[in-house]
Structure formats: structure tokens, C-alpha cells
């Protein structure tokens, strides 16, 4: 089984956890556990991982989706707990973080194009004129589970690219959709586009925004998964 747990978010699912602006989730996978982004504050990441009984030593891979503070803030703390983590980040800004991490560069993969992590997990590099962002794709028997940090390049663009590159439909889409300051029309267009992709489940959070969350919940109905700190979902491999 694959288990996806949201460990850092500004939407609260369990009261004993601590909410904060940012995003991080842990993918427990037979081929190696992945933490996708690390939130903003190390102490909050540490607290939530501990309360959710997730051992940093159990994590094999760290993917930092993009350069913003609310997605990379817990990285140094995490690497202090587990110096052997293999790191993936966009090429355009990785050198500055490499210096601050002060670890063997063999552990850091600076990504400038789409690439696999292992035989079951894939990274998509999405670009626009001001930022490059990684999204994670996880193969399952029912399609791809896609995870995005902020969707700065557009959630629909990321979904379409994931499907095109992997040649598989998207089974589930998790993460920030970056629609918090968007008009209702733009949100509706995103809904229409994602429905056209025939995605089985969506689990938006972080920078999606309250209006967009309410619209997605109404439009996707039973396909909408509530997502916040402490949310856990199981999928067959």
C-alpha cells in the first residue's frame, strides 16, 4: 500500500497538530519513503512528524518543489536528523541551498528536466517565466498519484504534463493549487479543465484558497478528498 500523510499545512485536520502557512507531505511507499517539501518552520515540522509517528530516519528521499520559504524551511532540520536523505530540487536555485546544507553533493540531484526517482516515482519539472517547480508522480495500478507544492505554473498545466509524460491517467491529485487570489471564473475554468482530465480524486490544500476549496468540493463531490495536517489516504500500489 501507499500512504500519503499531510504533515504541514495551513488547513488543520487534527487538533493535536500545529497548523502554519506552508506545505509538506510524506509518501510511504514500498520503494522508499518520500517527503515532499518541508514547510516553513523546523519546530512545527518536527512536532507534527512526532505526533503522526513518522520517523525522519525512515525517509529515503526529499523533494523540494520550489524555492519559496514555506516549502523548504524544515530542510536543514530534517537533514540533521537523517543525513543520508537523497535530495531533489530544481536546478535553477539548487546551488545556494547546497552551500547551506553542507552535505555530500552526491546526495543532491539538481533537476533541469523530467526524471525518475525510482521505478515507481517520477518528477515533472514545470516552468514559467519566473519560477521552476517540481511535481511528483507515483505510479499505481489505477493511474498516477500527482503531488504539487504550489502549482505556480498552473495546476491544469501540471496535470496535463504529468499525464503526457507518464502516458497514464491521473488517479489522484494532491497539494496546493494556487487559486487563493483567483476569480471565480478562473477557478471554474480550472475545475472544467481538471474534470476533462478524468481525475478520480482531488485533494487540494495550502494555497488553494477557501473559495476554490468550496467550489472544488461542490463540483467534484465524492471525488473531493478533504486535505489538511494529519490527513492520511491509502492507495493500492
From TrEMBL:
Residues 21-206 form the Metallo-beta-lactamase domain. GO terms for molecular function: transferase activity. Gene3D superfamilies: Ribonuclease Z/Hydroxyacylglutathione hydrolase-like. It comes from the Bacteria. InterPro entries: DHPS-like_MBL-fold, Metallo-B-lactamas, Metallo-beta-lactamase_dom, RibonucZ/Hydroxyglut_hydro. It holds the Pfam family Lactamase_B. This is 7, 8-dihydropterin-6-methyl-4-(Beta-D-ribofuranosyl)-aminobenzene-5'-phosphate synthase.
Amino acid at each position: 500500500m501507499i500512504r500519503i500523510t499531510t504533515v504541514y499545512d495551513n488547513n488543520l485536520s487534527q487538533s493535536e497538530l500545529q497548523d502554519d502557512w506552508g506545505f509538506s507531505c510524506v509518501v510511504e511507499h514500498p520503494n522508499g519513503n518520500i517527503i515532499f517539501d518541508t514547510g516553513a518552520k523546523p519546530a512545527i515540522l518536527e512536532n507534527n512528524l512526532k505526533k503522526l509517528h513518522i520517523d525522519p530516519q525512515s525517509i529515503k528521499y526529499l523533494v523540494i518543489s520550489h524555492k519559496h520559504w514555506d516549502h523548504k524551511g524544515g530542510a536543514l532540520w530534517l537533514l540533521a536528523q537523517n543525513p543520508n536523505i537523497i535530495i531533489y530540487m530544481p536546478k535553477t536555485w539548487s546551488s545556494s541551498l547546497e552551500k547551506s546544507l553542507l552535505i555530500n553533493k552526491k546526495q543532491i540531484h539538481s533537476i533541469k528536466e523530467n526524471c525518475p526517482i525510482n521505478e515507481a516515482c517520477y518528477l515533472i519539472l514545470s516552468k514559467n517565466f519566473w519560477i521552476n517547480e517540481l511535481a511528483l508522480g507515483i505510479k499505481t495500478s489505477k493511474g498516477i498519484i500527482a503531488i504539487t507544492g504550489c502549482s505556480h505554473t498552473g495546476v491544469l498545466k501540471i496535470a496535463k504534463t504529468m499525464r503526457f509524460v507518464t502516458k497514464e491517467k491521473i488517479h489522484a491529485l494532491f497539494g496546493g493549487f494556487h487559486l487563493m487570489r483567483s476569480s471565480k471564473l478562473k477557478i471554474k475554468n480550472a475545475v472544467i479543465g481538471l474534470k476533462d482530465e478524468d481525475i478520480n480524486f482531488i485533494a487540494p490544500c495550502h494555497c488553494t484558497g477557501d473559495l476554490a476549496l468550496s467550489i472544488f468540493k461542490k463540483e467534484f463531490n465524492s471525488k473531493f478528498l478533504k486535505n489538511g495536517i494529519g490527513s492520511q489516504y491509502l492507495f493500492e500500489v
